[in-house]
Structure formats: structure tokens, C-alpha cells
């Protein structure tokens, strides 16, 4: 598995898209800091970008990579290598290289602008950690979708739909149900509904570090009480981890049974 | 005996002097005399000042009430208290014990005092034409029920409260039925409830004060003709904390104030004909939250910067005017270069309307879905008041 991981990783590191992705974050980081000159303000703007873009890029990259390297995968399958190590190796290669681009691309400008001297370092680390989680989660999900669909167009369609659902539609349904059931106590429901969607969960985790004044309004208190404490933080990290592990298990399961 | 100077005597009080007790010296003194209290500790309480005297401390002598009751009680006109350190006021559940109580007096002057370990600090009762100047009141209030207010004015008028520092009490400065009061250059912070609390008090001015990190910020209620100028309201965070809470306030002017990092900058309820001019709202959760029945207010020349919500409104009716404000989230353009944006700005987001209706929806703050919805609402308003807009938003920040 490590050999394949290494191969995929280096393959991607050398590819143009990784550089584009890396340069995109690099420019974004520099431009934000240049315009704001305030590390903590820049972290807020970055959050908006990360919450939307990372899942989207993770999804599309994952699907693209799977379909592009399909012939090579079939070649590998003919060799005496375990199936799971082929696919997991590819998965970790893609997710790892994307995460590297993210961390380096955002990290370099922030370090150059004196992140260590500002107190935003914890917020920034949290931002990168959730970004990494989101990358792993969405690359995993897209791999599962790609392996389940022979048809490229269908695969792409489902993957983009999944992103659209988790990034936009889920919140819409969530909002609707909150309004429809506004007569009932909704605290626990909204806590659970937030925790179930990795994008929402990451957003709330970062928000609680940033927009505290608004969220502390009287309903915000319950979120602060849960997500703001150490227990809440551990629980949310556990949920993100679960979201990462589930697609990997799905990938293994699908890979074992698929008929090539 | 004291020394004769003109018609007034000067009495020196110290531990080893002929006069070692403040209480007895007050009894002996004639009207318009001066008491000089030398450095030392005086364990005395319930000092009744019933004639016009000047009581002046030298090197901050300590008057320790030993938690037995009130320390000074002033019932005469023309009394000056200056430079004393009062500690240990008795806490009572039946009496509002104060470090200094002024009852039905005129022309009093309380200055340069330091008050610690107190219940109520300076309590002015039916008094007028006095000055409370440059005092330092440090409480250690923990619960609302057994703590008192720093400076309290009750049925008082024409008093000047200036350059005081109040912290750690229940309400920093409290006014009830007090008219024509001027409150300037005070700092009120870390109080349990309100930094400044107005009830039924008209024609008052407060300016250049700083209110920081109070339990619930500043409350101005049931009052008319109040001027609030150049104050700073900061870091009033909490589940029910406001930079400023206005309830039933009419004909006021609020100008040049700074509201920074509050959960709610100004919470307005039932307040009419108020002018909001040239204020700065920076990094608040809600800059302005209008709850209901607010008519003919005007908001002009204010800076709204980086607030999660600029304005929140809970009705579709709008009778308030927004004009020439700067909004950091304004995205319009200015083709004719007159400094005003060519497209009107709508400060009420659909999201703030939704949050008003169902508070739990605040979890969706800054989500992509809400941004999309807000955008479409901004293009064609359906739920938010149609005429609530700033037709002349400033392109550059008002400096």
C-alpha cells in the first residue's frame, strides 16, 4: 500500500493541478493578508473559502483522479497486490497531496506575515485541521462514488450532487425544519443536525472561535456550551474522524467486491 | 480646639491629636468649619454631617465602617467630602447602606474619594446642585441580591457626575427620577448588571464615558430628552448583554458613540424620534436590533463595520430613516463620483429576519445557503421591509 501511496502522491505532486491548487491558496493567503494586514480578520475570510471550496475541490479531484488512473489501476490489479492496498494507496495519495497543497499554500504566507507573534495561531491551526479533515472526507466520498459507477458522467454527476447536497441543500432542509417546527424545543435537534454534516460542523467549530459575540446571543449559548467546551471539541473531532473513516471502509468494501 | 481663620475654624483630626474621632469633631465643629483628617485608620461608622462642613483627608486616611452600617450621612447643604478612603460598609437586606449618603441637600461636593468593600457607594437622595467628582469605587459584587450600586441618584436633580471610576458593583451608575444630570468622563466596568442604568429620568446628558464588560451593558429606560454623546460601549458580551438597551425613550440624541464587540450594539424597543448621528458600530453581533414600535427615528452618518448583522427588524413596517451611513458590506458603485453609492443598500438581511423568528437558526450563520438566500432577498425584498434602505450609502468611511 505504501508503495502505491508513494506513487500516487509523487504522481500528483508532479502534476500541474497540484501546483495550481497550491498557488491558488498561496495567492489567496498573500492577498488576504495584504488587504487586511490583520491575521485574525484574514482567518474569518478564509473560513468562508475553506468551507465551500475544499469539499468541492476534494470531490472533483477525487473523481477525476479515479477515472484518469483507471487503466493503470487495472494493470495493478493484474499483479499480486491486495485490492484494498491499491485503492487505499491511491486515496491517501490524492488526499495527502491536496492537504499538503492546502497547508503549505496557506501556511507560507501566514508564517511570513508573523503568525507566530499573533494570538490567531490556534484559530489558524484549527482552520487547517478542519480543512484537512474536509479534504479527506470528500476525497473518500468521491472515491466511493467513482468506484460504484462505471459511467464517468454519472459518477461526476453524483459527486457534484453530493457536494451540493452537503454544502447547500442540507442547510436549506435544516432551515425549513427549524421554521416548521419552531413551536417545539429545537436545541438538541439543531445540535445533532449540525453535527451530522461535516461542513456545518466545521463551520460551527471555526465560528465559535471567531464570531463569538453574535453566537453568544441567547440561543448561541447552547452551542457555545456544547461545542465550545473541551468535551464538545473532542466530540466534534471524533465525528469528523468518523466521517473520514466511514468512506474509507466503504471504499474497502466496494473494492473487494467489484468485478473489473 | 481648632484654629480660627476668619470666621471659620480648622479642626485637625489624627490618632494622637486632641481630636481623635471624626464623629466627635463633627459634633464640636461649627457650621462652615473645616476638618482636616490626618493619615491613619479610623474605625467609625454612621457619621452624621448635619451642618455645612468641609471634611478633607490628608494622605488618604482610612475610615473603616467594620461592616456595621453606613459611613457618612450628609443631611446639610454645602458639605464637601474630599480625599478619604472608606471601606467596609455594612451589607443589609433591609436597608440600603451606603458609604456616603446625601439626603435632601444642596451644593454638596464629593471628590477624590476611594470606596472599597462597599454595599452602596455614593447614594444621593432628593439632593440637587452637587458634584460627584473624581472618585474611585471598587466593589467586589458577586450576586445581584446582596450587592448595591456604585453611584445612585434617586429623586435628585442638577448633579454633575464626572471623572469617576466605578467597577465591580451591581449597577455602576444608577439614576431614578433624576432630571438634568450631567454624567461625563466616567469609566464604568466589570459591573454585575448595568454599567449605567436610567429609569424615569429626563433631560440628562451623558458624554465621553466608557462602559466596558458589564453584565448587561447600559440600560436607558422610560426617559425623555436624553443626550448621549461620544461614549464608548465595549465588550458587553453575554446571553442578554447589550451595548445599550433603549426602552421607551423619546426625543433623544445619540451621537458620536462607539459600539465595539458587543453581542447587541443597541437594542431598541418602543423608542421614538431619536437621532442616531455619527456613531461607530464595529464588530458587534447585531449592530442595531429593533424590536418594535419604533417610529420616526433617523440614522445618519453612522459607520457600520464588520457586524454579523447590521440591522435586525422584526416587522415589515418601517418609519425610520437611514441616510448617508457607511456600511462595510455595501457592494455598490459610485459612477458619478459624488461620494454616495448609486444603488441603495438594504441593511436588513433575510437571515436576521429568520433568526428573529426562530432563534435556533443562528447555527446557519455564514453558511453558503444563507448567503445565497440573503443575496436573492437583497435583489428583490419579500420578507424584509421594502422601504428600509439607505438610498445614499457612503462609499468611504466617515472619519
Automatic annotation (TrEMBL), chain A:
Residue ranges of the TM segments: 20-36, 42-67, 88-112, 124-147, 159-181, 231-251
Superkingdom assignment: Bacteria
Sorted UniProt keywords: Membrane, Transmembrane, Transmembrane helix
Protein name as catalogued: ABC transporter permease
Amino acid at each position: 500500500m505504501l508503495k502505491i501511496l508513494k506513487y500516487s502522491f509523487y504522481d500528483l505532486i508532479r502534476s500541474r493541478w497540484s501546483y495550481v491548487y497550491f498557488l491558488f491558496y498561496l495567492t489567496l493567503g498573500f492577498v488576504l493578508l495584504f488587504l487586511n494586514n490583520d491575521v485574525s480578520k484574514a482567518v474569518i475570510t478564509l473560513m468562508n473559502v475553506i468551507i465551500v471550496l475544499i469539499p468541492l475541490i476534494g470531490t472533483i479531484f477525487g473523481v477525476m483522479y479515479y477515472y484518469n488512473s483507471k487503466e493503470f489501476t487495472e494493470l495493478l490489479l493484474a499483479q499480486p497486490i491486495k485490492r484494498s492496498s491499491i485503492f487505499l494507496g491511491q486515496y491517501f495519495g490524492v488526499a495527502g497531496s491536496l492537504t499538503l497543497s492546502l497547508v503549505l499554500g496557506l501556511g507560507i504566507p501566514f508564517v511570513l506575515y508573523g503568525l507566530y507573534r499573533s494570538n490567531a495561531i490556534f484559530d489558524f491551526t484549527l482552520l487547517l485541521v478542519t480543512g484537512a479533515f474536509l479534504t479527506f472526507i470528500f476525497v473518500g466520498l468521491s472515491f466511493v462514488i467513482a468506484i460504484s459507477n462505471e459511467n464517468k458522467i454519472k459518477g461526476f454527476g453524483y459527486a457534484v450532487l453530493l457536494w451540493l447536497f452537503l454544502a447547500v441543500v442540507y442547510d436549506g432542509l435544516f432551515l425549513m425544519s427549524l421554521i416548521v417546527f419552531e413551536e417545539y424545543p429545537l436545541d438538541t435537534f439543531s445540535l445533532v443536525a449540525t453535527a451530522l454534516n461535516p461542513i456545518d460542523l466545521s463551520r460551527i467549530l471555526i465560528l465559535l472561535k471567531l464570531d463569538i459575540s453574535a453566537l453568544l446571543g441567547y440561543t448561541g449559548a447552547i452551542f457555545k456550551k456544547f461545542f465550545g467546551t473541551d468535551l464538545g471539541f473532542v466530540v466534534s473531532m471524533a465525528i469528523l474522524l468518523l466521517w473520514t473513516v466511514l468512506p474509507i471502509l466503504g471504499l474497502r468494501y466496494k473494492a473487494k467486491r467489484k468485478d473489473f | 480646639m481648632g484654629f480660627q481663620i476668619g470666621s471659620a475654624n480648622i479642626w485637625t483630626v489624627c490618632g494622637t491629636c486632641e481630636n481623635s474621632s471624626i464623629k466627635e469633631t463633627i459634633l464640636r465643629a461649627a457650621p462652615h468649619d473645616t476638618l482636616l483628617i490626618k493619615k491613619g485608620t479610623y474605625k467609625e461608622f454612621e457619621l452624621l454631617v448635619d451642618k455645612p462642613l468641609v471634611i478633607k483627608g490628608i494622605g488618604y486616611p482610612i475610615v473603616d465602617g467594620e461592616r456595621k452600617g453606613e459611613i457618612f450621612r450628609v443631611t446639610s447643604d454645602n458639605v464637601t467630602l474630599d480625599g478619604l478612603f472608606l471601606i467596609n460598609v455594612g451589607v443589609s437586606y433591609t436597608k440600603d447602606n451606603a458609604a456616603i449618603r446625601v439626603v435632601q441637600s444642596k451644593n454638596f461636593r464629593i471628590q477624590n474619594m476611594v470606596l472599597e468593600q462597599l454595599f452602596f457607594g455614593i447614594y444621593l437622595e432628593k439632593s440637587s446642585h452637587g458634584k460627584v467628582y473624581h472618585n474611585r469605587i471598587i466593589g467586589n459584587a458577586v450576586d445581584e441580591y446582596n450587592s448595591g450600586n456604585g453611584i445612585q441618584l434617586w429623586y435628585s436633580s442638577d448633579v454633575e457626575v464626572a471623572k469617576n471610576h466605578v467597577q465591580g458593583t451591581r449597577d455602576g451608575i444608577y439614576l431614578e427620577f433624576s432630571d438634568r444630570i450631567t454624567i461625563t468622563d466616567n469609566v464604568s466596568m466589570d459591573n454585575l448588571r448595568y454599567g449605567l442604568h436610567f429609569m424615569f429620568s429626563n433631560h440628562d446628558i451623558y458624554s465621553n464615558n466608557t462602559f466596558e464588560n458589564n453584565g448587561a451593558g447600559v440600560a436607558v429606560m422610560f426617559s425623555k430628552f436624553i443626550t448621549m454623546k461620544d461614549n464608548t460601549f465595549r465588550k458587553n458580551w453575554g446571553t442578554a448583554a447589550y451595548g445599550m438597551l433603549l426602552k421607551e425613550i423619546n426625543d433623544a440624541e445619540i451621537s458620536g458613540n462607539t459600539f465595539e464587540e458587543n453581542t447587541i450594539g443597541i437594542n431598541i424597543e418602543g423608542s421614538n424620534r431619536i437621532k442616531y448621528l455619527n456613531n461607530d458600530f464595529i464588530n458587534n453581533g447585531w449592530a442595531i436590533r429593533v424590536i418594535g414600535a419604533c417610529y420616526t427615528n433617523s440614522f445618519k452618518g453612522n459607520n457600520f463595520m464588520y457586524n454579523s448583522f447590521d440591522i435586525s427588524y422584526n416587522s415589515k413596517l418601517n418609519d425610520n430613516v437611514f441616510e448617508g451611513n457607511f456600511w462595510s458590506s455595501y457592494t455598490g458603485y459610485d459612477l458619478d463620483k459624488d461620494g454616495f453609492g448609486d444603488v441603495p443598500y438594504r441593511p436588513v438581511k433575510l437571515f436576521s429576519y429568520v433568526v428573529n423568528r426562530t432563534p435556533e437558526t443562528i447555527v446557519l450563520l455564514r453558511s453558503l445557503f444563507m448567503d445565497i438566500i440573503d443575496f436573492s432577498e437583497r435583489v428583490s425584498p419579500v420578507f424584509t421591509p421594502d422601504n428600509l434602505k439607505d438610498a445614499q450609502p457612503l462609499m468611504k468611511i466617515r472619519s
